[in-house]
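PROTEIN DATA CARD
Card holder: Class I SAM-dependent methyltransferase
Chain length: 231
Origin: Thalassobacillus hwangdonensis
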Amino acid sequence: MIRTYDDLLNMLDDQLMAERTFDWNEFYKDRNKKIPFFINAPDENLVSYFQQKMIQPQKVLELGCGPGRNALYLAQQGCDVDAVDRSTEGLKWGEERSKEMGLDVQFRNEDIFNLDVEKASYDLVYDSGCFHHIAPHRRMNYLELLNKSLKPGGHFALTCFVENGPLGGSSMEDWEVYEQRSLQGGLGFTPEKLQTIFQDFEVIEIREMNAFEGEDLFGVEGLLTALFRKV
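Structure generated from the sequence above:
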């Protein structure tokens, strides 16, 4: 029986079980795969935020950190970083990288929706590639996590699929997700959609990611980057 709000969320989770059971451990096992974001380089937009002094965080929470390329960059900038992911293989890789680089990152193997965070404890929440894999009904929990974890005036930065972009980015409407019982590999977004979802935050910048070649920065076509501030 559906008696509570949590019952409803769990029912909708079950509707999209195939999405939730994707094997990220298997995905990260072969580190030699030609996956663009397997390089140990930070997002170009994240680097630009620091270079332009748009953010100066001390304590950072990264959601869906994978092997930790952005978490490690943040640690290099002197940040105290908590990096969360469900994949033990991804976190193992990140921990190995952090030891090789002599950096301290708190890698946490947890589901972001079960994450216990202290209220108003982070200056920055960073998400590179997690949000577009989240079903529409879980956005409410996502926003609750942002509002709980961020300090007043803190920043939230996001990198996600462009709608109908070269990397995918489905343009399906939210109700179609449940009709088809699929996110079609990841939902795509437009600046207008992001502004609607995060309407309680101040928009600092929304733009497409700049493409880069080489191993110093990660930048590819087909991703949208956004920086918001908690009002």
